[in-house]
Structure formats: structure tokens, C-alpha cells
Amino acid sequence: MKYTLCLLAVLFLVSSCKNEESNQIDNLSADFDQLTEQTIEVHDEVMPKMGDLMELSTQIDERSKVEDISDEKRQELLFIKSDLDAAHTAMMDWMKDYSTAFPYEAEEPSTKDELDKKMPVLQEYYNEMEAVKEQINDAIAIAELALSGS
Fold first, then answer.
1. Phi-psi domain of 41 (left: phi exceeds 0; alpha: psi -120 through 50; beta: other)
2. Do residues 87 and 60 lie in contact, with contact meaning Cβ atoms separated by under 8 Å?
3. Cα–Cα distances in Å, from 99 out to 8, 52, 81, 122, 126?
4. What pTM, to 2 d.p., does this model score?
5. Rounded to the nearest 10 degrees, what angle do helices 112-149 and 2-46 cross at?
6. 45-101 per-position pLDDT tens digit
7. Exposed e or buried b for every residue in 81-100, given b needs 16+ CB within 10 A?
8. CA 100, 106, 110, 113 torsion: positive or negative?
9. In sequence order, what are the residues at sequence separation of 6 or more whose Cβ sits closer than 8 angstroms to the Cβ of residue 57?
10. Domains of the chain: which residue ranges?
């Protein structure tokens, strides 16, 4: 009888540990999925602005070639064009790097170790996408202001 109670206690403890580990993995997996979704949402918000970057870059380039503007204004416009082009490049680089780190067809991490390794990487990509979003929005705003005022 004493042996049976000890065995049941051990089985209960093992079962509790497995349930706790399973719950922890489920929570980490849910956090991973949520952060992935947030990252893609920011990307999807910014992606349509890529055309705006290219169009504004072309307009700025054309405006800088007008003969009756000062050298100072021309330099300002070329600096603005450089910012637009850098924002475009930042987005393209981010997409390339993200798709390498998290390929479309790859299986999602399913163990605690895999999740512990991938989560900080995903967080960094999210942070980078937020920075790219800000870079793109700032470049667009400055270019539009320069085009409307010159």
C-alpha cells in the first residue's frame, strides 16, 4: 500500500511537470505567433508606401535638375533624394533578411529551446521594422514638404 501511494505521488509529480512544460510551450508559442503577426502587420502597413518613395525620389530628382534653382536648394534636394533611396533600401534589406531568418515554408519553432532562440531574433526584426517604418514616413514627409514649398 505504501509503495502504491509513493508510485502514485511520483506519477502525479511527473504528470504535473509535463503539463506545466506543455503550458509553458503553448504560452511561448502563442507569444511567438502574436509577435510574428504584429511584425507582418507593420510590414503590411509600410509596404504600400514603397511606390510613394520611388515616385517622390523621381520628382525630387527632376526638381533638382531644374536650371533656375540655387546650388544650396539643389544640394538639399539631393540630400532628400538620398534619404528616400536609403528608406527604400532599408525596407528591401529588411524583407530579404527577414525571409532568410524566417522562411515562408519553414516550420514554426515547437520546443522551448527553439522558441527561446527564435523569440529574441523575431523581437529584433519587429524593432527593425518599426525603425524602417519611421524612416520611410519621415523621408516621405520631408520630400512632400520640399516639393510643396519649392
1. alpha
2. no
3. 49, 23, 27, 11, 13
4. 0.81
5. 20
6. 999 999 999 999 999 999 988 888 899 999 999 999 999 999 999 999 999 999 999
7. bebbbebbebbeebeeebee
8. negative
9. 81, 84, 85, 88, 143
10. 28-149
